[in-house]
Amino acid sequence: MNAILQAHALGKRYGQRQALADCSLEIPPGHVVGLVGPNGAGKTTLLKIACGMLAPTTGRIEVLGEQPNGGTAQLARVGYVAQDTPTYGNLSVADHLKFGAKMNPGWDAKLAQARVEQLGLDPKQKVSKLSGGQRAQLALTVAVAKRPELLILDEPVASLDPLARRDFLRYLMESVAEHDTNVLLSSHLVSDLERVCDYLVVLVSSRVQLAGETEDLLAQHHRIVCTRRQESDLPAGLEVVWAKHTDRQSTFVVRSERELPAGDWSAEHLELEDLVLAYMERAVDTGRGGAGPGGRTTMQPTGEAR
């Protein structure tokens, strides 16, 4: 298997609204992938297509080398936890495990039971009486006990408090390490992605803006602060991702796959959140017609450089 997910020119339209457009992406196996972007970027649409819940309007996609809607055998290879960590309020914890066992041929009953005991959940308890964090953990338990090759999580911790988020993510990483599961995790909480993800995809305005191994991306990007100048005055080989100017000072976020050349500036690597924000701002500005010469994108000189 060369990729856990391959998409080419993928698009999805709901009536007049384009939810996903010209999305091309290839994610290699062996990663916990963070999918990040603003609300409305198309993250949920992409994940629903990947797990076979939606059919694309245009383009093509393969998940684990097969079509997402390839039948029960393909569905058994993918676990999915939706945004609202779906559970059934009128069913008990035990009922959820029985349902999971009936629906999934690879069900790991020992894993599910052990996790329920570890969480301290009463098997007879109706799920409607559980806390949000407990419901999220139960949904994750059911998905993991399915023993999928790919686990897709759509903002599963967005509504949880910090302690519940920490516990959820900790169990996720324990499961990944123990069962060698590929994970595709959508979130707008970059701090959570930074803790668990080693591969990053930035999706803005229905298009992929950046994708790659997190460590490599952070090594390739720098923030440069210098006396005011134009992008064309920077050394060749630097891709300007984001720029902002004051009367005397310019701040650039640049990408270079080689060592950053020496210059009359101060330079520093970016934190993950700054990297994500730079590409999000570039995508928004490009959509307003802000692309500069050679595809470089700039922001208008307003406010102080940051």
TrEMBL record:
Q: Which residues cross the membrane?
A: none
Q: Which residues form the ABC transporter domain?
A: 5-230
Q: Where is this region: Disordered?
A: 286-306
Matching entries from Pfam families are given as: ABC_tran
Asked whether the UniProt record includes Transport among its keywords, one would answer yes
> Which keywords does the record carry?
ATP-binding, Nucleotide-binding, Transport
Molecular function in Gene Ontology: ATP binding
| Entries under SUPFAM superfamilies matching the protein | P-loop containing nucleoside triphosphate hydrolases
Supply the InterPro entries for this chain.
AAA+_ATPase, ABC_transporter-like_ATP-bd, ABC_Transporter_VariousFunc, P-loop_NTPase
Its name, as the record gives it, is ABC transporter ATP-binding protein
Q: Say which species the protein is native to.
A: Dactylosporangium salmoneum
